[in-house]
Amino acid sequence: MATDSSAPEIQLSGDSGLKKQILREGQGERRPTTGSEVVVHYVGRLLDGTVFDSSRDRNDYFTFNLGTGSVIKGWDEGIKTMRKGELALLTCGPDYAYGKRGSPPKIPPNATLQFEVELFSWSSLKDISERKDKGIMKAEVKQGEGHETPKDEARCVINLVGKVLPADASEEDEEADGEVFERRENYEVVIGEGQLTRSLEKCLENMRQGEHATFVLAPRYAYGAAGDASLKVPPNARLRYDVELVSMVSPQEPWDLDANGKIHAAEKRKNEGNELFKQGKHDRAIAKYRRGTSFIDADHSFQQGDELTRAHALKATLYLNIAACEVSRKSWDDVIENCNQALKLGANNFKALLRRGKAYNERNEWDLAKQDLKQALELDPASADAKRELAAVNKKIADHDKKDRQAYSGMFERMSKMEQKETKPTPAPSAAGESSDK
Q: Which of 50, 135, 196, 438 has the least CB density, counted as fewest CB within 10 Å?
């Protein structure tokens, strides 16, 4: 594609300190965003045409993370306006380059610099999964407005296109396309009401109003090994969703309520979470329980005495219910964390000690498990669950000790045989210099 040296200059800053001239148009509409790892070629010149640096002369692409301050301000601001394949001339005043000091010996003080930059590619994928296992990856296509993001019970209007990615598509390829299986326009949803999968709700919770983003979901965060025949999603399919958050209305916030209103709102979310738990919808139940804690999180909202005691008891129950969900998901770290929160509100919480003890047992931290389970049995000596879990811990310890004894026994036996072999006398040679016959 030919370059256009007569293209008009575009002002990228309000102070005329950063200008851009598009020498060759790029492809598509996507642009890199803050944090993207971008790959470019560049040639840097003084205004008199002197080249002071060039990746092309080194025949080596330059890679950096955009918007993190690792390059001059003119690059961070200018390259995020470029599209893939675009060739542009960035003119950077001193405040967008190396300032009053310059960068001796090649760049003098207060120098205005020009960079011919070609943008080859970038990776904007960010892991937004709760477990940080790259199960839900996000790439921002268009920035949203403000800082607020949807939360449980927010009312949203979205545009959405879901696609099944080819089985051979690279996990790192954020531009991989596929076959459309779902399309919705101006679709009104309420977060937490089950209109979308929990993973898609998680995607929305990481967007701002007006934002357009692409999400790639691993099978375990989509329709799993079963797939969904009604949507024509095959088993173990990776999915791509292109989502636009058109608008959002935030739910009622805790600061809008008095103390009794906060407790009532938390109770309501607890009951809703309990119904979801009974249905086996643990992810949604957790979202309700967490929403419930948000109403009663601040102690200063409640008067000392019965009011604060009620809030603490309810908060402990919500944390314990989250822990119960995490037990079902075998997320032992999260079980421990939520039990810890409950125990901060009361050290003699039987259920918290029991569930944390089970989690420690599953993580093979047997001393901690025994400590929690013994304390639980002091609180409820008749508990069959605590006795059973403690017995399981003791059996694991016994099995482990038995394996250790067997391993050491075998090691000592081998060492003993080696010592015997080393000390066994060598037969005396015969007069002829050979071993005697038997």
A: 438
